[in-house]
Amino acid sequence: MQRTSFAAMDCPIARALDALGEWWSLLILRDAFLGLTRFDDFQHSLGIAPNMLARRLKSLAEAGLLERHAYSQRPLRHEYRLTPAGRDVFPVLAALGAWGGRHATGGKVLMQLAGRADGQPIDPVLVDRRSGVPVTPETAKFRPGPDAGAAGRARAARIRVAERRNGDGVDAVPT
Question: In DSSP terms, which residues pair with 93 in a beta bridge?
Fold first, then answer.
């Protein structure tokens, strides 16, 4: 079954989802950050069908997130290494893991992000590079960028109408 492509949408989130594919892709990238590089290792770790893993690895390589390198000529075998673009996914996985730890594990600590230098647990937070202010729904919002097309600007205009009708678009969080 062919899925819908988001590659032409005026939204970096949609385009990122197009590049990342589906949930197996994020789990493959997670395992790549854990040090796995070989097909058999990914398959053993994930329990994924070989044909599905082959498609996902190919897709991640085509999206520029993994690079394929031959490690054996007889038989020909490849390993998959993170590219700079793939490495840039780390904060996304760290944030997703932190969210999952807070909201999807029933209070169990199943995996933690820890500092390499001291081994202490890390609770990631996204911070604006320019101001140092944490990025939250209360401090930031999405808006069309200077290169947004007509469809993206029209969508943003519809959202602004809904914001005026419903408030600022963020439910108030008690402090």
Answer: none
Alpha-carbon span 94 to 73, nearest angstrom: 36
| Residue 164, pLDDT score | 82
Angle, vertex CA 15, rays to CA 14 and CA 16, nearest 5: 90
pLDDT the model gives residue 31? 97
Higher-confidence residue of 78 and 12: namely 78
3-state secondary structure the chain: CCCCCCCCCCCHHHHHHHHHCCHHHHHHHHHHHCCCCEHHHHHHHHCCCHHHHHHHHHHHHHCCCEEEEEEEECCEEEEEEECHHHHCCHHHHHHHHHHHHHHCCCCCCCCCCECCCCCCECCCCCECCCCCCECCCCCCCCCCCCCCCHHHHHHHHHHHHHHHHHCCCCCCCCC
In 3D space, the residue among 133, 26, 16 whose CA is nearest the CA of residue 63 turns out to be 16
Cα–Cα nearest to 65, from 75, 53, 73, 57? 57
What pLDDT, in 10s, does the model give residues 3-12?
Answer: 677 777 778 8
Place of tokens 């402090």: 175
- The model carries a pTM of 0.83
Tell how far CA 152 is from the center of its chain. Answer: 22
